[in-house]
């Protein structure tokens, strides 16, 4: 019963974190299941000196990093290209469409649809360490102190990576044709 409550409460935000980290819905679902198995297996190791969410995101992060290391040499596919299914049909959405939050405010929907895909492209161009901090902070709302714990770095390093991530995103978005007027509302981009 308590486990079901934990899953209900944390499934969506942790899944979104893993999905944005991996960029692949099927891989994110696999990693989420693997994470919940690890939660069950390692429950006795949890020490309440850290918040449960910090421990949970640390498990998720470690699984993502381990999987990324194992797949380092795999071929990548374009995030803009629709996925091919058997018989060559392309009726599955492009991976970048899987990253989009389906519930933007109605008055911002047109604006979001133009900027969101460019942001996701820019986000994937960042180094992994910067992307991770950005995702944890902006998409999951995790404080820098907890990001530092999850990533195994100092709080100042987390803040520094965030600063570099923001600079890199601004630079990349500018190259993609997004000016300050389109990017001025920070809630527009991340939901």
Termini gap? 31 Å
Series of H and E elements: HHHHHHHHHH
- How many β-strand runs? 0
Which strand-content bin applies to the residues? under 5%
Topology-level CATH name of the largest domain: Arc Repressor Mutant, subunit A
Which regions contain 5 or more consecutive residues with pLDDT less than 50? 182-191
The biggest sheet amounts to:
none
Describe what you observe in this structure:
It is built from ten helices and no strands. It is globular and about 50 Å long. The longest helix has 21 residues, at 2-22. By secondary structure, it is mainly alpha-helical. Residues 182-191 have low confidence and may be disordered. It has helices at 2-22, 25-42, 52-70, 95-98, 109-125, 128-139, 144-151, 155-175, 180-183, 186-190. The protein folds into two domains: 2-70, Rna Polymerase Sigma Factor, Chain: A (Orthogonal Bundle); 103-190, Arc Repressor Mutant, subunit A (Orthogonal Bundle). Helices cover 68% and strands 0% of the residues.
What is the fold's blueprint, element by element?
Elements: H1 2-22, H2 25-42, H3 52-70, H4 95-98, H5 109-125, H6 128-139, H7 144-151, H8 155-175, H9 180-183, H10 186-190
Helix pairs in contact: 1-2, 1-3, 1-6, 2-3, 3-7, 5-8, 6-8, 7-8
Summed up, what is this model?
With 191 residues, the chain is mostly helical. It has helices spanning 2-22, 25-42, 52-70, 95-98, 109-125, 128-139, 144-151, 155-175, 180-183, 186-190. Helix 1 (2-22) crosses helix 3 (52-70), helix 6 (128-139) crosses helix 8 and helix 7 crosses helix 8 (155-175).
